[in-house]
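Hi support team,

I've been running sequence recovery on a batch of backbones for a student project. Most finish fine, but this one hangs at about 90% for roughly twenty minutes before it completes. I'm not sure whether the input is malformed or the queue is just slow. I've pasted the structure tokens below so you can try to reproduce it. Let me know if you need the job ID as well.

Thanks,
M.K.
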């Protein structure tokens, strides 16, 4: 299974998904290739409906927390 970014509106009935551009979905490479072939046959102006997402570009489920250093008023005046 791999992650793919959606580049156009898609309704994948087999997966039960309605997808908008920018959504990311996990599919097998074969299934993504089949979807791209079907979309290209119907809409030749769309080169790829699904584009592989690089592992470091994938959205993370964990939200990142940032810590801010608390500066005392006396330290800020320096």
């Amino acid at each position: 299974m791999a992650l793919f970014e959606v580049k156009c509106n898609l309704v994948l009935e087999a997966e039960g998904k309605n997808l908008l551009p920018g959504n990311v979905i996990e599919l097998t490479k074969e299934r993504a290739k089949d979807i791209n072939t079907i979309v290209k046959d119907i809409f030749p102006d769309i080169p790829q409906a699904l584009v592989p997402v690089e592992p470091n570009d994938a959205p993370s489920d964990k939200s990142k927390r940032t810590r801010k250093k608390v500066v005392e008023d006396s330290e800020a005046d320096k």
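--
Follow-up from support: It reproduced on our side and the slowdown came from queue contention, not your input. The mean pLDDT is 82. No action needed from you.
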